[in-house]
Amino acid sequence: MNKIIAFALATAIAVPLAAQQDRAPFVLDNGQSFYRLDDAVRAANGGDAVITIAPGTYPECAVVERGRLTLRAAKAGTAIFDGGTCEGKATIVTRADELRIEGLVFQNIRVPDRNGAGIRLERGDLVVTNSLFRNSEQGILTANDPQGAITIDKSTFSGLGGCPNGQCSHSIYIGDYGKLTVTRSRFERGTGGHYVKTRAAVVDVRDSSFDDTRGKATNYMIDLSAGATGVISGNVFVQGLDKENYSALIAVAPEARSNRSAGLQIAGNDASIAPGIDRATVFVADWSRERLSIGANKIGPGIKAFEAR
C-alpha cells in the first residue's frame, strides 16, 4: 500500500552465503581480527570497543558481559546472523553498560522456550540503527532495568511473534525499562503477539509504520502493558484481516497501572483498516483511568478514536 512508509533497509537483502575475505571477518578497532564473534567480544575485554563485521552469513552468537560495545556491519545489510543462539536465549545476549547494533541482520532464531530473539537485553542501554530482524520468534526481548534506555531507529521487524500454547512472543518485548524510543522504523508481517509490547515508563514512538496487512493471528500494534507517558506521533497503522485480537490498535495499561499514563500524547498518526475488511475497532483503548492527551489523528472508517475500558 502506498501509504506504508518505505525505509532505506529493504526487507529482503541478497548477500553471499558465507564471508569471502582474506582476513578473519570480525575486526576490533585496534586492528585485531577473529574468525569467531565471541572471541572478538572477549578480546574487547569490557572496554569501549567497536567490532566491524565483514559481509557474510554467520551461525554465530555472543554474550556481552560488560563495557560499551558496538557491533557494526562493514556495509549495512550484508552481515547476517542466521539462527545462532547463546544461553538458549538469543544471538546476542547483553548485560553490558551499553550495546550498539549498526546495520546488522538477524534471522531464523528459535529456542526451546520459543523466545528466541536477535537480541536479549538483560541490563544496560541498547541502541539499534539500520538493522533488520526477520523470521524469528522475537526481534528484541528484554529483562528489567528501570534506569536503562532503549533506542531503535531506521530498523525493520518482519515475520516475528507467535502464541503457541498461550505463551506469546512479539516483534519487540520490552520489560520494565526507563525509556523506549522507536523512530523511523517498520513493523510488518507479524506471526502472532503484538508488534510493540512494552512496560517502559516512558515511550517515544514516532515516524514509524505498522503494516499488518500480511499479519497472521496478530494482536495490538502497540501494547503499553503497564501504562506509560511520552509520545506516539507521526506513525502509520494499517490493521489487517487475520487477527487473534482486533479490538484495538493501541492499548494503554491493559495488564496493570504500574506506570503513570497521565498526559500521554497520541497525535498526528494515520490509522486505517486494510481495504475489503468490514469490522469495527478502536484506535486507542485505555485501561489507565488517567487523562491522556489525544490530539488530532487521521482515523479511517470502522475505527473509533478512543474508548475507556
Task: Give the tags.
single chain; 309 residues; mainly beta; 10-stranded parallel beta sheet; 32 strands
Helix content: under 10%
Q: Major beta sheet, specifics?
A: 12 strands, mixed
Oligomer designation: single chain
User: What gross morphology would you assign?
Assistant: globular
Widest sheet, order of strands: 2-1-3-6-9-12-15-18-21-24-27-30
Low-confidence stretches at least 5 residues in length (pLDDT < 50)? 1-21
Portion in strands: 35-45%
Please tally the β strands and state the result.
Answer: 32
- Would you tell me the overall average pLDDT? 93
Number of helices: 1
Distance between the termini: 32 Å
**Spatial extent as radius of gyration:** 19 Å
What structural category arises from helix and sheet content? mainly beta
Structural account:
This protein is mostly beta strands and 309 residues long. Helix content is 3%, strand content 45%. It contains one helix and 32 strands. It has one helix at residues 37-44, and strands spanning 26-28, 33-34, 48-53, 56-58, 62-64, 68-73, 79-82, 90-94, 98-102, 104-107, 117-121, 125-129, 132-136, 138-142, 145-153, 156-160, 172-174, 177-183, 186-188, 196-198, 202-206, 209-211, 222-224, 229-233, 236-239, 248-252, 265-267, 270-273, 281-286, 293-294, 298-299, 303-308. A hairpin with a 4-residue loop joins strand 1 and strand 2.
